[in-house]
Amino acid sequence: MKEGTDLLNNIESRMSEFSKGQKRIAMFLTEHYDQAVYLTAAKLGEITSVSESTVVRFANELGFDGYPKLQRALEELVKTRLTAAQRLRVSTEQIIKKDRHILPTVLQSDSDRLFSTINEIDENIFDEVVEKLLKAKKIYIVGGRSSAPLSSFFSFYLNLMLDNVVNVSGVNLTEIFEGIFRIDKNDAFIAISFPRYSSRTVKAMQYACKNGATTIALTDGSRSPLAQYADLLLTARSDMLSFIDSLVAPLSVINALLVAISIRKSDELEKSLEKLEGLWDESQVYSAGTDTSKQI
């Protein structure tokens, strides 16, 4: 099945082609995809009264290379279709079933996302992104909704290294467009968004693409609406554990970009930081610790 194809529409359009057992699987997936996403092939087979091998063959019939790939498509479906309240209900049920303390559950889940991101991200594309940012006349960064802190973090540190960075994560689409209306082919545009995707970020990315800028997306995969407008696609896992999006893996990718750029700009950056340290000391930007005698 091609990337971006609506899984449920694909299943429903092919319902007449399936065997009786496959139809039971198909009906369960279309009616209970929020539950199916967490089921193993064996468990799904048990619920639908078919064998595990039938479930695997069903995944292959849909065009997936094995059941895990079908599960991943179901994850994408859950992330984009469920409301915040539905996500909370589904994830809470799953956490309760694990019968573990919430702290190790969340930390292990974030660790798994980092591990998946390491295995899935393309290092060559990462290197190309670094080159494009270093060569760009101006760098525009946008991240809406829950991704706004990522864009702020990225632009804060990038501004210490480069003098051409603009964070255009405005509160509405008009403000974003006002920030990027001069964007052209000499500029780079970085869009950051994860399910549920920000429509403002997607529209801004589309505008940047239309105006010839180098477009870079940091998102969760090729099914993201940002992908179709991206010259360079950086992927990081942000799977649902609750209605709260986990941004651990995306933040790590941003950290890696910042470190890579800082190494390339190390000589200039060292001089800038030495100058900034003097300004920070004068302004008492940072606390001196427990000794408050010199603080105003």
> In percent terms, what proportion of residues is strand?
5-15%
The CATH homologous superfamily of the largest domain is named: Glucose-6-phosphate isomerase like protein, domain 1
Mean pLDDT value: 84
Number of domain modules:
2
Written overview of the protein:
This protein is α/β, with parallel strands linked by helices and 296 residues long. It has 2 domains: 7-81, Orthogonal Bundle (Arc Repressor Mutant, subunit A); 119-279, Rossmann fold (3-Layer(aba) Sandwich), CATH 3.40.50.10490. Helix content is 58%, strand content 8%. The chain is built from 14 helices and 5 strands. The protein has helices at 7-13, 20-31, 33-36, 41-48, 52-61, 67-81, 84-98, 102-120, 123-135, 148-161, 173-180, 199-210, 248-264, 266-283, and strands spanning 139-143, 165-167, 188-192, 214-219, 232-235. The chain has a 5-stranded parallel β-sheet with strand order 2-1-3-4-5, with helices on both faces. Helix 12 links the parallel strand 3 and strand 4. Helix 11 (173-180) packs parallel to helix 12 (199-210). 33% of the residues are buried.
List keywords for this structure.
single chain; 296 residues; Rossmann fold; five-stranded parallel beta sheet; 5 strands; 58% helix; elongated; disordered N terminus; disordered C terminus
Detail the topology: elements first, then pairings.
Layout: H1 7-13, H2 20-31, H3 33-36, H4 41-48, H5 52-61, H6 67-81, H7 84-98, H8 102-120, H9 123-135, E1 139-143, H10 148-161, E2 165-167, H11 173-180, E3 188-192, H12 199-210, E4 214-219, E5 232-235, H13 248-264, H14 266-283
Parallel strand pairs: 1-2, 1-3, 3-4, 4-5
Helix pairs in contact: 4-5, 10-13, 11-12
